[in-house]
């Protein structure tokens, strides 16, 4: 019996279905990498803000901080 475009366990050919489980240490490593990345971006953004004698971090401060780290973000006017 062939399935016509349905999803589920019967086909077995399309995708793996469901949520893949990953080990616990991956979560901790991912959290540490994200924390380091955000710390660097925020530190640079605050430096731009302080240099401009402002007390509010703007979106452009974030864009410039990301660009400085080699992660250019498009879609914001400069």
Key features of this structure:
about 80 residues; mainly alpha; 2 helices
Your description of this structure?
It is a single chain. This protein is mainly alpha-helical and 78 residues long. The chain is built from 2 helices and no strands. Helix 1 (24-51) packs across helix 2 (59-68). The radius of gyration is 22 Å and the shape is elongated. The mean pLDDT is 86.
Beta-strand percentage? Answer: under 5%
Helix content range: 40-55%
How many separate helices?
Answer: 2
Q: Give the SSE order as H and E letters.
A: HH
Shape, please? elongated
Mean pLDDT: 86
Secondary-structure map with pairings?
Blueprint: H1 24-51, H2 59-68
Keywords: Chromosome, DNA-binding, Nucleosome core, Nucleus
InterPro entries: CENP-T/H4_C (IPR035425), Histone-fold (IPR009072), Histone_H4 (IPR001951)
GO molecular function: DNA binding; protein heterodimerization activity; structural constituent of chromatin
Short description:
The chain has 78 residues and is mainly α. It has helices at 24-51, 59-68. The chain contains two helices and no strands.
